[in-house]
Amino acid sequence: MVEKFEKTFLSDELDEEIAVIRGEIWDNCRDWCYKCSIAIPENEKERKIVLCPKCKRILGFIPKNGINEYLKTLQPDEREAREKGIWHHLSGLVYKELDREKHLYEDFPIPKDWMKIEGVDPHDARGTCWLFGAVSPEEIEIQGKVRHRIFVHDYLFTHDSIADIVRQVKSIRAMHNYTDPAFVILDAKYGIKSGLGSTEEEKKSWQSELEREGIRHIKMSHSSPGDVELGHKIVREYLKDNYSKVTQAARPGLMFAKKSCSGFNSPIQYMFNYQYDDKTHKPKEEYKDWADCVRYFCLEQPIYRSPANEQNIIDLLQVRMNKAINLRRSAVNG
Fold it and tell me: What is the 8-class DSSP label of residue 222?
């Protein structure tokens, strides 16, 4: 597998000429194909067959028994690097399930009738992360319950003021042909935080300022003790393949747009590099922000609702409210 670096080791500049080639020890097995899970008994003593009979992959030169005996000699924290070809310093990845071939999709216009969701991880010192997702009508199963597939399709990473952030958010929404999402999940610990002073200026919070700028349907993220690790568990559930009756195909319940979610300080960069600290066993701060937004999405376990039906319900409630107000006024005046 060839993986391009986004940066060189010596600078922050992108370099398309630098790549890392990663392979598993099983690529070099001669009498068993790990991709097809089939044995090739003709190759037990020597390499007589060059290609896997099923997938036509070029077979290696080491017998399966030899590989297994070698792996038994390794310490658990070393095995992943030796067996899977994953760099040893990345062995603590939070989401080891992530696979670029499976979890990245070719960008496409998000259908208007898909339910839009957004997540915000606000910061003063470092950039604010605003994630854009869409919930499709495709049914999947999460922890034995019917849920719907999530497509992360765009993002905003900025150091701008709240007013400028909101202007950019509204522009991105317009680009994707909607004005309001079903909900905007805001980091609870930071979103409701305000100054301790007595003036209105000192009491401002991210939630109040976003609402003042016209952001609606804000809800706070889950922030009870244990929610972070629970969130990791549910994200892993979404990363599994889920069969959809709508598309009649199996693919992950959570996917990322290959182009629109890539780049420096992007959701893809952060998700694929998000890892635990070996000493504290807690997630490192580096690459944490976008992973938090994704966790907010998955903890909600959103269920698809058609935006058109949602608006019809809102309109009906408004009509009933107006009738009730008019009846009350008539009773008062009568």
Answer: P
